[in-house]
């Protein structure tokens, strides 16, 4: 009986094993998973994907021995897809930095224009309330002065000294005939002489020069900050359209899609392998690291110069006082001034009443300073310092807290791309040729020089467009240095932490993706962005549909006004406790 059963049992197991082997063979030689990934990623028409692997396919990039689920058309489509995906990822990161800069450029400019509008109204109210005889004729010159200041701080090639000189030249005839000699009537032809000789007669004492000096210092820093933010936006626009070389596209295709040709659609590249590919592709982008860090350092100092000591607010709020002191100086020295004018312009005499013509300068045409957010001027019931002081300081703190996170942007961009969804830390990974436990190749650093030893991507020459951007940024840094000679001498802001070195093109041998810039900073980029965490991103994690950043101080706490209540309660409780002890 056992002899009968044994042959049956042996025959059953043999049949079962042969059936399972047949099923495994069919599954192993199916390209179904490859076709699914091809469709989900919208790489190309599904008809290009074979049903089963081919053995006589001539591929240019994804070469390997054995059957392949790829064809030449698929390989070409993979290169198009990887180019599109890589540039989209680069733009998604640069989008955040671009709108950080452009959004704060608008915020700073709106604040500048509001301060100018307030100061203009402040001076106009002085003329209307205190010097009403000349206010109607002087207001057009006030408008012309602040229009010139507005254009200057926006970056136009104007001279503050020339604008202030024109203002006082046109103010002098009005002060002379309306305040110093009110019975003279209109200036008439003598007004031309008074305007032409104002600087020689010097009726306003040192006050015009003092005003010009203060405004030149304060507005010069504001103008430099406006130009710097505009330059940063242009740099980001240029890097958004970076081109990828053929060698780069081959490396990216091999890293991202050649594993699909073997049916391995879920395997991810090794970290060190990805870094080599990305650093080779973005070698010219990494060359912007040094000039960019100097640019960010200049931004730090410019914002401190503009807002650190309230210099811009104080300078603009002081225009009213300087003009008032200048008019009082002319009135105080009225007799001496009249005698000097009679010698230079002839004896005083009543002439036919004619109006003093407005500012003849053709370059200023805007009648008043306007801003997209500035309200119409209303004389406040509280001192202007209490209303305006601190606006720029709040904006400065917020801006610096953001921009510091992007100081190493161009150096760590390859790692940010690799730390996204491209690479996962697993027991096995894709090395470009096979599935391995770890990448054995040498991981190079950033920059063109380091790519000479890159085993994955050959970099033959720098990108000419990015080389031009680098030269332009270096030239701008030097122009800012020449414009404000003291810039660059201040220590890095300790409370915000920069902590990096200048040289950044060394080699790197570890698998973890150590930074080639010598900073060691990449280990802190837990969300793939510079210096942030998953809960503290500069602008957001969805760059596709976000608005420019709202100007708001993050983590700054409440203003001093709200801090006074707890302090008062604490003091009150202390007094009550003392009284209770005495009782």
Report on this model:
This protein has 583 residues and is mainly alpha-helical. Helix content is 57%, strand content 1%. The protein contains 19 helices and two strands. It has helices spanning 2-28, 32-40, 72-130, 132-153, 160-180, 190-201, 207-240, 246-256, 271-281, 283-286, 289-307, 311-317, 319-332, 334-345, 384-388, 391-403, 409-418, 464-483, 560-582, and strands at residues 429-430, 435-436. 40% of the residues are buried. Residues 1-27, 350-387 and 491-583 have low confidence and may be disordered.
Short description:
With 583 residues, this protein is mostly helical.
Features:
Glypican, Glypican 5c, cell membrane, rod-shaped, mainly alpha, 583 residues, two-stranded antiparallel ribbon, disordered C terminus, single chain
Helix content: 55-70%
- Alpha carbon gyration radius: 36 Å
Strand content: under 5%
Overall, the morphology is: rod-shaped
The run of helices and strands is HHHHHHHHHHHHHHHHHEEHH
Major sheet, described briefly? 2 strands, antiparallel
Estimated structural class: mainly alpha
Note the total helix count. 19
Instruction: State the total count of DSSP E strands.
Output: 2
- Poorly predicted runs are 1-27, 350-387, 491-583
Lateral arrangement of strands in the main beta sheet: 1-2
Q: Give average pLDDT, whole number.
A: 75
N- to C-terminal distance: 112 Å
InterPro entries: Glypican (IPR001863), Glypican_CS (IPR019803)
Region (Disordered): 350-375, 487-548
Transmembrane segments: 12-30
Function: Cell surface proteoglycan.
């Amino acid at each position: 009986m056992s002899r009968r059963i044994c042959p049956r049992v042996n025959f059953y197991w043999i049949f079962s094993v042969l059936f399972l082997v047949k099923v495994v063979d069919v599954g192993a030689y199916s390209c179904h998973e490859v076709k699914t990934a091809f469709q989900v990623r919208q790489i190309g028409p599904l008809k290009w994907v074979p049903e089963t692997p081919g053995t006589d396919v001539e591929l240019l990039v994804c070469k390997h021995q054995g059957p392949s689920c790829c064809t030449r058309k698929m390989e070409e489509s993979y290169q198009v897809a990887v180019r599109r995906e890589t540039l989209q990822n680069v733009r998604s990161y640069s989008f955040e930095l671009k709108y950080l800069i452009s959004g704060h450029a608008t915020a700073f400019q709106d604040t500048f224009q509001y301060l100018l509008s307030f100061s203009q109204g402040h001076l106009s109210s002085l003329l209307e309330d205190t010097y009403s005889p000349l206010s109607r004729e002087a207001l057009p010159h006030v408008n012309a002065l602040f229009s010139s200041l507005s254009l200057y701080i926006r970056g136009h090639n104007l001279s503050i000294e020339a604008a202030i000189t024109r203002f006082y030249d046109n103010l002098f005839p009005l002060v002379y005939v309306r305040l110093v000699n009110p019975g003279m009537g209109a200036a008439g032809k003598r007004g031309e002489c008074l305007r032409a000789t104002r600087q020689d007669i010097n009726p306003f004492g040192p006050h015009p020069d003092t005003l010009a000096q203060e405004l030149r210092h304060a507005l010069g820093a504001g103008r430099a900050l406006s130009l710097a933010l505009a330059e940063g936006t242009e740099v980001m626009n240029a890097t958004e359209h970076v081109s990828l070389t053929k060698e780069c596209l081959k490396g990216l295709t091999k890293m991202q899609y050649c594993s699909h040709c073997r049916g391995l659609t879920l395997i991810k590249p090794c970290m060190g392998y990805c870094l080599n590919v990305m650093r080779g592709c973005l070698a010219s982008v990494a060359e912007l690291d040094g000039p960019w860090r100097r640019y960010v350092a200049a931004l730090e100092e410019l914002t401190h110069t503009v807002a650190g000591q309230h210099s811009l607010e104080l300078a603009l709020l002081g225009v009213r006082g300087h003009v008032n002191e200048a008019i009082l100086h002319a009135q105080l020295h009225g007799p001496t001034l009249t005698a000097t004018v009679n010698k230079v312009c002839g004896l005083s005499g009543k002439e036919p009443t004619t109006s003093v013509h407005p500012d003849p300068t053709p370059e200023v045409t805007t009648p008043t300073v306007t801003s997209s957010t500035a309200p119409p001027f209303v004389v406040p019931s509280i001192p202007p310092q209490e209303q305006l002081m601190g606006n720029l300081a709040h904006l400065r703190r917020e801006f610096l807290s953001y921009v510091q996170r992007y100081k190493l942007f161009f150096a760590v961009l390859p790692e940010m791309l690799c730390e996204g969804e491209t690479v996962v830390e697993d027991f096995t990974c894709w090395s470009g040729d096979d599935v391995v436990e770890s990448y054995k190749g040498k991981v190079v650093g950033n920059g063109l020089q380091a790519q000479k030893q890159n085993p994955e991507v050959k970099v033959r020459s720098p990108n000419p467009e990015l080389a031009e951007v680098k030269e332009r940024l270096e030239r701008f840094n030097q122009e800012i240095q020449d414009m404000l000679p003291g810039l660059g001498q201040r220590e890095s802001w300790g409370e915000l932490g920069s902590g990096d070195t200048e040289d950044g093109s060394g080699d790197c041998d570890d698998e973890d993706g150590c930074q080639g810039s010598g900073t060691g900073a990449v280990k802190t980029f837990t969300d793939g962005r510079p210096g942030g965490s998953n809960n503290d991103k500069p602008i957001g994690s969805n760059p596709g549909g976000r608005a420019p950043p709202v100007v708001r101080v993050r983590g700054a706490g409440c203003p001093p006004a709200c801090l006074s209540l707890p302090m008062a309660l604490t003091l009150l409780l202390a007094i009550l406790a003392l009284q209770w002890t005495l009782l």
